[in-house]
Amino acid sequence: MWKKCLNFIKQLPSVLFIIFSIVVGSFIVHYLKITNYYKNIWIDFIVIYLCLAVFTFVPTLKAIFKRIKLHPGGDSFNTSLHFTEAEKSLLEQHYSRIQGTLVFWKNQAEKYRNFHYYCLFWTIPSSIMIPIIIQAMNNSNVTKILLTIISTHTAILIAFHRGFKVEENFKAFRLGESEFYDTYRRILDQPITFGETHEQQLQNYFKQVEQIRKLVRNAETDNFPTVDNRVDKKNQELTNHLNT
To answer: What does pTM read for this prediction?
Structure first.
């Protein structure tokens, strides 16, 4: 739990620093009455906000256009002492056919994960920044532009996050990938859990993998972009199945 929280914070530490600087700086400008530089400071805040908003979106762009490779695993079917050579060949062929799907799941999960965190890092602090900046602002057009930019940016992120069902898709692809590798490791380490005979073990393994693929595919098709904000039945079914 703590490790996940630390990884989350390490994603974009500069964002929190800049937000903190904006809030503190706005109070300094307001209470010290630095009128000669007041307008220029707000312009600097606008430039910093826009540059940082674009810069922190780079990880999401990389995840969209970069093809992520699967991590090399440990011993696989070819080194198993449980199965015969013919059975090993069947398992290796089956895994080679699903590798493309695993790469797709991993890429999709990474893309939605990065955008999900990007939305969190901007929408949550923005809800705190806006009322504080309002108290420190004057009636100049520059401060109004800053608030318009922050509000518009936040509204766009919320709309895309909900419309594209970012969190639901991230969970679907991530849970599907995790469930497959759990099944994959189980057939290697505890094949007896799939049945008593080798034939039963292979057939049950193939059926479980196919079931995982169907559930992820159903969740994916049900999570197409939409203005509907309700939780999809199929995606909830996937989550419940993978958590059992």
So the answer is: 0.71
